[in-house]
Predict the 3D structure of the following.
Amino acid sequence: MWVSEVVEMTGMITGLDSALRAPDASTRLQAALTAGTRPSDEQIDALIARCAVEPDFFVRDMLTWALVRHDHVTVVDRLLVELDGGAPQARSQALHTLSKIGDPRAWEAITAGLLRDADDETARAAWRTAAGLVPTDRETWLAAQLASQLGRGDRDLRLSLSRAFADLGPVALPAVDAAAADDDPEVRAHALATARLMSDPEEGFDAALAEARRAVALRGAPSAPEGGC
């Protein structure tokens, strides 16, 4: 490589680093767009590093788009490193990007620990990525791991988990049905709502969850005494 090319490349990387740290989100968005429009392996580390700390949703989405435009083998190798410890956002964004790339190698890196991660966004991204990449012979294992998370979090997190079950399909139903008998009423309701969505994808999640909670409440209500007073 000629010296002039090295200088130009160094300048491009330095410029990208600086632009990705700009105070203005629109500047960072444009930097990510430019990096994706002109992909170069030398940009990958800077893009991934920014994913771990970028506060703006739209910029993070553009960073993922830019990484998908780069060489998949190199990007996946680098993203897999991010899953091993580090900040929660680094893990969640790495998983999100891996789900967009769809490389089967990512499956081996999705551990039970990631599927049960204490950080909701990391767990959510792990559920979605795993459901899209799981090999046929590991679907039952994944369903059991996902079932352990039923009843977790707020409405949006529960919807994400139900969608992961729907992506898995009928093979996940035994795990969902087993959770419908759990001691925790929130787990039971979430499991019943998930089963409804799996059988009727057109049904809204809120309606399915409300109906499931009514069913749980009715089952837990005391029986009326026989006979009169």
Summary: The two ends are 97 Å apart (CA to CA).
